[in-house]
Every structure is written in C-alpha cells, then in structure tokens.
Amino acid sequence: LKLSLKCNNKQHVSSSEVYGHYWLMKNYIKAEHGPLHCATNVTYTTHADYLYLDNLVPLLERWLSPVSLALYAPGDDFDPTLHSILWLRQCHKSRHLVRELVSFHIYFMVTHIPRILPTTDTALKRKIDCSKPPPYVNTTHSSLYRVKMNLTYPVNMGRNLARGASLTHFVLASDIELYPTPGLVPAYLKFYSRKVVKHSGEWLNAPVVHVLRIFEVQANATIPTTKSQLQEMLVQGEAVPFHLKVCRDCHEGPLLEEWMNDTDSQYSQDLNVFNKGTRLPPHVSWEPIFIGSVNDPPYDERLSWEGKRDKMTQGYIMCILGYQFHVLDKAFLVHKPGITADQEFHHSFYTHQTNRLISLRIIHELRIKYGRRKGCEL
Ligand SMILES: *[C@@H]1O[C@H](CO)[C@@H](O)[C@H](O)[C@H]1NC(C)=O
Ligand SMILES: *[C@@H]1O[C@H](CO)[C@@H](O)[C@H](O)[C@H]1NC(C)=O
Ligand SMILES: *[C@@H]1O[C@H](CO)[C@@H](O)[C@H](O)[C@H]1NC(C)=O
Ligand SMILES: *[C@@H]1O[C@H](CO)[C@@H](O)[C@H](O)[C@H]1NC(C)=O
Ligand SMILES: *[C@@H]1O[C@H](CO)[C@@H](O)[C@H](O)[C@H]1NC(C)=O
What we know:
alpha/beta, globular, binds 2-acetamido-2-deoxy-beta-D-glucopyranose
C-alpha cells in the first residue's frame, strides 16, 4: 500500500484560521500517537458538540485507531467543551486511549467568539477536578449556548474540518454515535492490499468507497461485535436496521435483507465485498456511511443539520462522478444503544430554506462544476 497509494504524509500541526464566517482551530488538542504514514492506517473523522462526548470512549475501544473530531463550540459552549476534553484526557479510566488517539478541532462563528480562548499550551496545563462529573453528563440540549442563541449546527463545516485534518488517506467519515465492529482497521487494510495485488494497482484510481451497514440495538442490549451475534439479535428483535422508519430511502440501499440473511461470509476471516451499488435509480437518495478517502467530494458547508439533506449534495456529486458503493460483508456500524422511535422532526423553517438553496443555487453550481449524468438526482 505504501508504494502503490500515492498519498502525501502530513505534518501533525495545530493551526488557527478564519475561513468565511468561521474560526477553525485545527488540532487544538492533538493526539499523542507518533507520526503516521498516510497509507497504513484509517482515521475515523467526525463532528459533535460536547454533549455527545459520552460516545468517544465506547467508540475508541472498538476503533483503536486515530480519530479526528471537530467540536462546534461557539460562545459560552467553549468552556464546557474544553473542560470535557480535558476530563476525558485526565480523569476517564480509558484516558490513555483518548490522549493517544484523538485529535480535537474546535470551530465557531467569528460573531460568537468565546470570552476566553486559551492557547493550546495553557489549555493543556489546566488541572481538572476528577471527583466531579464531566460537563457532558446531565446537561440538557436546551442549556447549550448555541440553542439559547438560536444558532443552527453547521454540520458540514465540522465534517470537512475533521476530514481535512486526517493524517491518513483512508477515512471513515461518520457520526460519533455510530460504533464500528472491532478490528475493522487492520481488516480493511488487509482487504485493500489484497485488492491492489489482485488488480495490480489499476483499481486504485477507480472511484470506489466501502459501505458499512448500520443497525440499532435496544437500550439494554450489549453491542454485537460480530455479524453472527448481530444476526441473532436481529432474529430476536433486539436489533433493527438503522432508521428505516425515519427515512427508508436514505438507509436501505441494495440487498439489505440479503446481507442480513447471509451466512456464507462467516466461513472466511477476511473482509470481502458483499454487493456493489450505485446511487442511480432506485437508490437516488441512499446516504450510506463508508470508508473512503480524503479526496472524496466535500460536504456543502452552507447546509445545516436542522435543514436536513446535509449529505445529499455529496451523494449527488459522487453519482455524477460514477462512484461505486461496495458494501462490506461482515463489518458494520451500531448506533449507541437505544432504538429511536418514529421520530418526527419539525424544522420546517430550515428544511424549507435548505430546499430553496439546493434547488435555486446549489444544483446549478454543481452542474457547472461536475456536469450531468442521467439518473443522478438531488
Ligand atoms: C493505527 O494507529 C494507531 C495509533 O498509532 C495504532 O495503535 C494502530 O496499531 C495503527 N493501526 C495499524 C493497522 O497500523
Ligand atoms: C444525573 O442525573 C440522574 C437523574 O437525575 C442522577 O440519577 C445521576 O446520579 C446524575 N449523574 C451525575 C453524574 O450527576
Ligand atoms: C430562530 O431563528 C429563526 C430563523 O432565523 C427564526 O425564524 C425564529 O423565529 C428564531 N426563533 C427564536 C426563538 O428566536
Ligand atoms: C430490554 O428491554 C426490552 C424493551 O424495553 C424488554 O422487553 C427486555 O425484557 C429487556 N431485556 C433485558 C435483558 O432486560
Ligand atoms: C431472509 O430470511 C427470512 C427468514 O428466513 C425469509 O423470510 C426472507 O425471505 C429472506 N429474504 C431474502 C431476501 O432472502
């Protein structure tokens, strides 16, 4: 992989820059792992506000590889965010994993600068009282500065910041509540190397990403670590495919039921491709999570979480560029335990605004930039 993948090794440095309306503090708190070769590891890239930091350790315990995490921390959200990071690095029983593997980036709008913004060195010297719980425990969403100030969550700014800061070529750009199967990184690298040998490198330039199926489990269930455990839970009704009731078209994709029924893949230890899909009809709204690379199309930074459809423009570009979505046979993601009921999202103001932005502007820009392809829809 080192020889055939022409990626550039990156320096692991902190930086701070104003970018549009935002202030981006990249690598504000850096992971302590040494230099990484760009071809020999996979980075989990994600975004959150500090209330989601309870997911970090369960995620790390399964992933055991680098994590690049962008935290949105405007105004008074900054201090509890930093406190939470330091609590995880100083007080958590798995603090060694946090310190070794996680690089934290922080971003906010220039119009909502925190009152005090310590330098990295000053921040790292701060001693946390470990006898008190971290700020992300027992804090409600409505008490966030962002919510009180009626700010939307700039999800794609975070996604691009985290992915851009990855030191590795391969990334799993995901949501922090989605936990991968243990051993995925070494299995993936082995799988990829086999492909490169078999196709003598040609295949490297093809636009292909590797999809992970997503499941939810009951709040009191243990998270499955293998496909056969998952399948047992699916039969018992303790696990279900992710969000099929919320948005079937976004999550189902091709051959989901066949994937769930599959027993053949258990005869091999190695990771393989189960089936291949595209975003052409009937899967025009499919929003899979996949292992791809830092060079995959960016997320549109004008789209917010509240407006929904925040990953649709990326999917549309990938469709135009002819990307193939190869579904891995025995690796998958499990959402933090607890099956979400039929959620009703009421963000009509923002979804309306987003829909207008997409249909009046973004679609035209994308057609100019990437051209058209029959069957691709936004
Ligand atoms: C990826 O990097 C982490 C942190 O340095 C290391 O513990 C892990 O073994 C690496 N994985 C591989 C497959 O080299
Ligand atoms: C959080 O709140 C719950 C319910 O009010 C309480 O039982 C629990 O002890 C609190 N946890 C911490 C760490 O304060
Ligand atoms: C929040 O912002 C939206 C859009 O700017 C606006 O329509 C709404 O009235 C605001 N709500 C509050 C409580 O300020
Ligand atoms: C887990 O929760 C479900 C639904 O709330 C319940 O039916 C089941 O008995 C619980 N299982 C255990 C082992 O507590
Ligand atoms: C999957 O298995 C179930 C239960 O055995 C069966 O009813 C269903 O038809 C299978 N589906 C597919 C697509 O093979």
